[in-house]
Amino acid sequence: MDLKVTVLGASGSYPGPGAACSGYLVQGGGVNVVVDLGPGSLANLQRHLPLDQLDAVILSHAHADHWVDLTGLHVAHKYFFGREGLPVYVTAENRERAALLIDGAEPVFEFREITDGTTVRCGALDVVFSGTHHYVETLAVRVGVGSSSVAYSADTGPDWSFEEFTTYRQGPVDLAVCEATHLADAEHLGILHLSARQAGEMARRAGVGRLVLTHLQPGSDRGVYHLEGREAFGREIEVAGEHVDYEV
Ligand SMILES: [Zn+2]
């Protein structure tokens, strides 16, 4: 195992009944990074990692369902662990919003602004960002260590693809965690999210190894997303489950 992704929350747009919003613990090369911290994900994170063992936070975009649990992490680090300088990778807009919401965000956090094309080294991890097709600046992320890699779409409409990583940037994607907010019957609405069908088709074209669908509409039938995504991907896929981990 080179990389492990643990799902902390897979509920799209708002928390479902007992289900947290977007959050993923990515571990590899001795480094612990959390990607997105939506409502509920901080609680779930602590079933897998003590909060003082986090090495960095990556936030994909400024929509609340992807980051507001940063508030709780701030309290924990400031008042309970006395820690400073946790790197938090954010878009400029997300940094502004976080600074508004969190009194004294720095120096507890050390904000590092990211944008399309930014590459960073996080311990042993090589991290690259790609701007997606969404309502605000949103960054998909690819994390690589050795010859293994995982990628996360963040939120995106159909005009972005994992090809941004596989074709133009840092090579293959062994495991793709892709948003699928709705089903094909809602594609005509033109919202900047993917259906399970679109996610499957896009991931197939990009040549990713394995596909995990996430960011599902709360209360929806996971089985239908699974069937629709699998048909479009052309192979077996998985639908993200809270506390389930995926290894590459
Ligand atoms: Zn969003």
- Share of helical residues: 10-25%
Q: Architecture, CATH level 2?
A: 4-Layer Sandwich
Spatial strand arrangement across the major sheet: 6-5-4-3-2-1-14
- Class by alpha and beta content: alpha/beta
CATH fold node name: Metallo-beta-lactamase, Chain A
Order of helices and strands: EEEHEHEHHEEEEEHEHEHEE
Cα(first) to Cα(last) distance is 6 Å
What's the shape? globular
Average pLDDT, rounded to a whole number, is: 96
The largest β sheet comes out as: 7 strands, mixed
Please compute the radius of gyration using only Cα atoms. 17 Å
Number of discrete helical segments: 7
State the name of the first-level CATH class: Alpha Beta
Question: What labels describe this entry?
Answer:
alpha/beta, 248 residues, 29% strand, 7-stranded mixed beta sheet, 23% helix, Metallo-beta-lactamase, Chain A, binds zinc ion
Please explain how this structure is put together.
- By secondary structure, the chain is α/β, with parallel strands linked by helices.
- It has one domain: 4-Layer Sandwich (Metallo-beta-lactamase, Chain A), CATH 3.60.15.
- Helix content is 23%, strand content 29%.
- It has 7 helices and 14 strands.
- The chain has helices at 41-45, 70-80, 92-101, 105-108, 163-166, 196-206, 222-233; strands at residues 3-9, 23-28, 31-37, 56-58, 86-90, 109-113, 119-122, 125-131, 139-145, 148-152, 175-179, 210-214, 238-239, 245-247.
- β3 (31-37), α1 (41-45) and β4 form a beta-alpha-beta unit.
- The longest helix has 12 residues, at 222-233.
- The N and C termini lie close together (6 Å).
- The mean pLDDT is 96.
- Residues 61, 63, 134, 155 line the site of zinc ion.
